[in-house]
Design a protein that fits this description.
CATH class of chain A: Mainly Alpha
Number of helices of chain A: 4
Shape of chain A: elongated
Largest sheet of chain A: none
Number of domains of chain A: 1
CATH topology of chain A: Monooxygenase
Strand content of chain A: under 5%
Distance between the termini of chain A: 51 Å
Oligomer: homodimer
Amino acid sequence: MLWELVGSSAAVLTMFGFVPQILKIHKTQSVEDVSLWMLIQFCLGMLLWMLYGLHIRDNILIVANAVSFSSLIVAIGFFIKYRKNCRRNCKRTK
Amino acid sequence: MLWELVGSSAAVLTMFGFVPQILKIHKTQSVEDVSLWMLIQFCLGMLLWMLYGLHIRDNILIVANAVSFSSLIVAIGFFIKYRKNCRRNCKRTK
């Protein structure tokens, strides 16, 4: 019961781990400091974790990574949408 | 053998998933568009996945999440270090 709670909490936290980043991108409409490679690497990684979860028949692994994978697709979509907004046009004080 | 490769690839990709973001922060010295909540949420999530991995005795889960957790500590350190660099001092064209 305790370990189910630990696993479920881990799942919920990482499942929705990119949600704060998605909300921030949506709010600022800027992705200048966000790494696209991070998003792509996680997207592929989560897909493979999901397949591995199917193999070892661990439902928590499967569901958590399926949701993460979906959120990463949204994040990459937002990245592509907003990447032109500030690219090389920002005037920074530093 | 195939599934070990799938699990290991998933582990390597997500283990080093935040490395591109860390390198980008180090290069630009700016974290304005990066969500701190994303980093904190993943940090806690990876810690719990690691504990869950210990429980189900899955070495891939344990090692992958231990490395991710460590990289997140670095990312959060960088975030704190560079968060003042551009905060509310950026002049954006949009």
